[in-house]
Amino acid sequence: xxxxxxxxxxxxxxxxxxxxxxxxxxxxxxxxxxxxxxxxxxxxxxxxxxxxxxxxxxxxxxxxxxxxxxxxxxxxxxxxxxxxxxxxxxxxxxxxxxxxxxxxxxxxxxxxxxxxxxxxxxxxxxxxxxxxxxxxxxxxxxxxxxxxxxxxxxxxxxxxxxxxxxxxxxxxxxxxxxxxxxxxxxxxxxxxxxxxxxxxxxxxxxxxxxxxxxxxxxxxxxxxxxxxxxxxxxxxxxxxxxxxxxxxxxxxxxxxxxxxxxxxxxxxxxxxxx
Length: 274
Fold this sequence. Notes:
The protein has helices spanning 19-35, 59-71, 82-91, 108-117, 133-141, 154-170, 201-211, 220-228, 239-254; strands spanning 51-55, 75-79, 96-99, 102-103, 106-107, 123-128, 146-149, 176-178, 181-184, 189-192, 195-196, 217-219, 259-264, 268-273. The chain is of the alpha/beta class.
């Protein structure tokens, strides 16, 4: 049985206000990165929502990119200079990094080199006003997946992000299929045979989470953290999860789906294929 991870390393310990604890854990994380060992305080959560780091010093462009990606339901974080970029990549993991080359305090290419030293596998798209052949070649040799010169259209950037994430997580496929159910992440559609399901955003997110983990046990806490985010630790119970899953089950059954979300007593749920 493969458990979903219940504790999140990618945020400041549940947004705690205890500065001393956060500082201590931050030091521990740096030591772990330095010695290239896996965290022993917690394990990396296999996040359902794709997380993107935007390393860009120009405020208006950074904000535009952030808003555009969040409309596509990505979780975004930002770094505004070389030092904050290094801190982010050393402490946290991301699905994709948008990297400007010219940063206050250093070069984005050195950030890319540091990623390589840490043996991290994030997809990297360089976004830079320096459209020189030398920079392109150096960036790609250091492990960048794509190079987008400024100025660019946000639609093109979003398409390139989707492309690299599709190659990474779905072997280039445009849909996730389990049984007779097809889920299209690029358009947020779900089809059972030739019938399209009408799902709310959270219902879609729940189904997407399970379809990426067919026949695997899913802990209720891990599901809640992945779909609702790290603020889930502020709620008193999981009644809202039960209600959403009940709705998804009903819609799948009424549409004749060959998959079913089943409760596993004392643990959580599992997506079963009939």
